[in-house]
Write a structure and sequence with these properties.
245 residues
């Protein structure tokens, strides 16, 4: 992984942690939801263009970190690696869709068209939340091997919390577009996401050699030999897969 991309991804993971914590605190105070260019009660920020660009770059840089984790996971758990790639790809597609909708909504003057785009934006934001929760959950096999038990357990919480948000939308009270209404579930969801992205940034810095060194999967999958096991005679093969347990 290129050094520039690694350090940019780590910095943006930390940025996501700070913005998620700030949004959770703001929801506790004001009870309204905001995301990128869309502020409280659907109002657009005067710097909507810059907010959209920053959000898109943040998503791309953070996705690169998750894809690198998926590459490291592939030698041990190929299904988990493919699942992580699927979830990260879905999250990036959903994020791009939400941001492009915001870019269109910021310049539309027709109220009828704006109302239709707002409804689509609400559905797309829920789509994004689902893939964020799924992406974090898909990283659980990686964190079980390379990180602490705290991370491997914590990544399982965002997706069930998002399911609570969807259940509230379907059976309790539908939120007015363009964003879901603030709720205890959304506040806890953002709080856990903030803690997780902060922990991921710290993990990346502590294990930066894993991200910066080249990974040759063919060499990892080749059987390993212990030349010192038998001073005379045939050497012992130590297995046919990487990270044997």
């Amino acid at each position: 992984m290129p050094k520039v991309l690694f350090y940019a991804g780590t910095a943006f993971c930390l940025f996501l942690a700070l913005t998620s914590a700030a949004e959770a605190a703001r929801q506790i105070q004001s009870g309204t939801f905001a995301f990128a260019a869309v502020g409280a009660e659907g109002a657009f920020s005067p710097r909507a263009g810059w907010a959209i660009v920053v959000a898109l770059v943040t998503g791309l840089a953070s996705a690169a970190i998750f894809l690198r984790m998926a590459a490291l996971l592939a030698a041990r758990n190929l299904f988990g690696a493919f699942m992580a790639i699927f979830a990260v790809s879905g999250a990036m597609i959903a994020l791009a869709g939400v941001l492009f909708l915001q870019a269109r909504m910021a310049v539309v003057a027709d109220r009828g068209l704006l109302a239709a785009l707002s409804e689509i934006h609400l559905a797309a934001s829920l789509f994004l939340g689902f893939f964020v929760g799924l992406g974090l959950l898909s990283m659980r096999p990686y964190f079980r091997v390379q990180a602490s038990r705290f991370l491997s357990i914590s990544v399982a919480f965002p997706l069930p919390l998002f399911v609570l948000i969807v259940v509230q939308e379907m059976f309790v009270k539908a939120s007015p577009p363009p964003l879901p209404a603030a709720s205890p579930a959304s506040i806890v969801f953002l709080g856990i996401v903030a803690v997780l992205f902060f922990a991921i940034a710290v993990h990346c810095i502590r294990h930066r050699h894993l991200f910066l060194e080249m990974t040759n999967l063919r060499e990892l999958l080749d059987g390993r030999v212990d030349p010192g096991a038998r001073p005379t005679g045939r050497p012992i093969r130590l297995g046919g897969a990487a990270f044997d347990s």
